[in-house]
Every structure is written in C-alpha cells, then in structure tokens.
Amino acid sequence: MIRTIDNHQPVPDITISVALVTRNRPESLNRCLMSLRSQSIQPFEVVVSDDSDPEFAAETELIVKRWNCQYISGPRRGLYANRNHAALACKGTHIRTMDDDHEFPEKHFEQCMLAIKSDPEAIWIIGEYLPTEKVGQQPHPCPGQLHPRGFSVKPKNTQNCWAISDGASIYPKVIFDSGIRYAEYFKFGYSYLEFGSRLYWLGYSLRHLESTYIIHYYDKNNRSVMSDIINLSSCFYAILCHSFIYQNNLINKVLSILEISKQIVKNRQLGFQSLAMALRAYKKQEKMI
Question: How far apart are the C-alpha atoms of 98 and 22, rounded to whole Å?
Fold first, then answer.
C-alpha cells in the first residue's frame, strides 16, 4: 500500500526490518529470537547476518530458520562490517539494529512502530537494562553520546543529541541507501560512538525512544572478539573524528589530546601503536567526508 502526506507525495507504508548480527553464540541467539517472536506486533522481516566460525554456523542457521527468519552469511570482517551487511540486506522502510544477546519487554515493537509514525525521519535510539537491574518507570535509560575524552555520557537533551545505541537503534533505510555506513576500520570497539556523532553532524535527528528498552545479557567474558589494541585505537579514532571534524572546537580538541596523551603514558607501546592505527583510520575518514 501507498499512503500520502500533506504535499500529496506518495510515501510507502512503514515497515520495520530487523538487522540482527551474530557470531558464535547460538544459545544466546535462540533466546533473542524466542523473545522477538513473542511480540504481539512482528517486524516486516528479520535478517540474521552470521559471522560465526564453521563449527557454529550450521547450528546458527538451523536456529534462524526455526524462527522463520532470513539467514545470510556475514562478511567476517568484524562487527561493523556485519552491521552494514545486515542493513543492506533489509527491504523495510526502517532498519532496527539488533544483537544476539538481547531480549524485549512486552509491546516493544508496538512502541517502536508508534515512535516511527510520530517522526519517520528520525533515528530512534533505545536504552537498556541488565538482567540483574530493576526496570524503572518511564522514561527508560537513554544510551550515551560520545564525550571528547572517549567515553559515553547521558545527553543533556535526549531528543536532540548524538547518542547512539549500537545494537538497538532504528534508522530510516534511506540513510544506508544514500551510502552512509558504520566505519569498518576496526572489527569492534568504539566506532559506533563515532557513527552517532557523524550522523548528528550530517544533520540527522537522533531521539531517545523513552517508552521501551531492551534487556542486555552482556557478558564481558563471552565477547566474540577481545583486543586491547582495537579497543584503544577505535576510541582514539572516535574522539579524533568527534573533536577535529564533527564538533571542531578548542575545548574538545584539548580534552581529546589530553586523553590520548594520558593513555599513551599509561599504556606506552600499546598507546603509540593505537594512536598510529587511529590516525590512519582518521585520515581515511576525513578524505571520505
């Protein structure tokens, strides 16, 4: 069906595609899909992009098909390459990113749909609780936005910010259709915070969806990839982009330089190596934009 708006231009009906990424965690994925399929309102499609090693891939594919989802093999170049791969396979008007260690409260997708209908051009970001945390009253927690020192902080204005939820955001598909992508320089790490800052700089509206949340079964000992140098270099990359391109001002630059210097003193060789990797990625990103 096609609907029209005030200027009589045809606009497609809203459809939500889930772009779910997974790697080597079939049990967690099964829990996630079970929770998703229990929702009263179902997404238009669920695309699962699998970066698993061969010993997990067959079981993962069986789980995906058991829950009537679309299975695609991932690019195996890291988390953000996989996010892009999953998003580009989606056909809905909006793309809901998702991770395999998430669960959802009742009426989660109903709230997602209501938010999109209220502002279809916005990027909607969704906060989280850990399983051990008590779920509070609305508004639920807001994801953090990038600070010039490399960590995330709660936005002052959650309806106009550069905060991003790596695995729980809703993007109009036209963003990916226009060529915008997650940066793929690092297999995982802080690149998602750079993405939020970049989208805000590009003029997109990033808004907190206050009426729902996800349950995140985060396990720092069960991450698909762990690397100190990737963590630190991706952090350096994010703050360089933020403070020297997207929000280029003296205070941000000073804070970022001080933080990088602090980490180099603390980590020595690892710090220097991380800065070199970050600078290479920063220069590539600067040329692209």
Answer: 9
